[in-house]
């Protein structure tokens, strides 16, 4: 009898191992579709000043406990265009407070870019790719970013379509600008545009959602655009949490080939497992610089957002590391 029990336990154990290995092989195969890019790990080249945090509390949270990942969205219209970071965000995995945080950085913010002087922060990616863009964020805001993710317009569109679209409240003054971008995307693909006809709640496909995220010249300009981008990110996050298992392959096929990242497959698996284990399911969001600490100025005929960088740095640290704002 004991032998039979041992035999049954052994069989269950073997089946369990096969399932686990099978799942790992499945996930591993899909993660191979991501465009993995190696970047430097050198603190100086990334602009990380380990001992220069604002206070001792941040030193405790500047390593594995609070992980910051730079997220860049590409503004290229065609596949072979030079890439610029049209959207700049910082994804924070806050293990101390068990939260996910998303910080938007205004693309026109006037900052110092290494070896290029004072200019718009959005130019850093075009000048020197992800390493210079990360260095610019770290040096100007005293952060500890070591990795990044980049998604171009095509990857974003494909993800929304794979998820079956998203529901977004469209304001009346956004329609004309949104349709302009929809037509532009349709012209690139030589397809017929599906235009927005009314304000209010609309179910957007990938092309429409991307166009909505690009709206800039109405409302509160780029400030409102960052709000739209974070809103869309939050909606996508919610949809991805609740999709049916049967849709996993199509969603993975749509987004992974369009992602470029410095994170390893093991990094992605570890971070995903960590986040999925938390009870808190909401993304906390903020935008920098905040309204009270910037001025809009023209310098040599070019429009910039000139921020109080010291105060902005402090606010970012309060939000990212101390969970305050």
TrEMBL record:
One Pfam family matching this protein: LytR_cpsA_psr
Keyword Transmembrane helix: yes
Family, as annotated: Belongs to the LytR/CpsA/Psr (LCP) family.
Keyword annotations from UniProtKB, A to Z: Membrane, Transmembrane, Transmembrane helix
Annotated transmembrane regions: 12-31
Source species: Tissierella simiarum
The name this protein goes by in its record: LCP family protein
Domain Cell envelope-related transcriptional attenuator as annotated: residue spans: 84-241
Lineage, top ranks: Bacteria, Bacillati, Bacillota, Tissierellia, Tissierellales
